[in-house]
Amino acid sequence: MSWTFMGSDGSGRPDTEESRADHRTQVLALHAYVSRLLRGDPVRTEDIVQETLLRCWRAHGSSGDGDLRPWMFRVARNLVVDNYRSARTRPQEVDGERWKEYDAGVRGIEEGVLTAMMVRAALATLSPAHQRALFEVYYRDRTLEEAAQLLGIPKGTLKSRVHYGLSALRKSLTRWHVEEPAAAPPDGHR
Length: 190
Description:
Blueprint: H1 17-37, H2 42-60, H3 69-89, H4 109-124, H5 128-139, H6 144-151, H7 155-176
């Protein structure tokens, strides 16, 4: 594809109709590809296509060197992957209507406090070695290698402590599980 961009082929002459049609075809193909990757999200698709074209213009200017289509599709794919990865690390975005779905009667601050109290009590039932292993791996978000090195134990020992610690924690938490109260007898009789 001979790449003419932004209305110029580098010679100062305006684009020919053929080059504009070629440009339009390439952009439409790129747009369709990115839209499929993003499962039809039109806003993100436009952003990725625009960024791809901008990078192409910066890298190759107005005179393309050979067939740029594979390069553009690779750049677009990389941008989609980068966009996906960065979205996973950010907190979930909430729109202005999301608060209406929140039912304070079912899931409020009190439930969070009670859950934290139950987890704290369940953790207290574990041995100190299991507590430290779970704390380093889950609370401090360390890799197994980092946590094992910090605790001064082999990685296999840490894996075992995490496994058995989680198992004991699960058993302890099931003891705290409370069934829903039965319906009150009619007329308030007990």
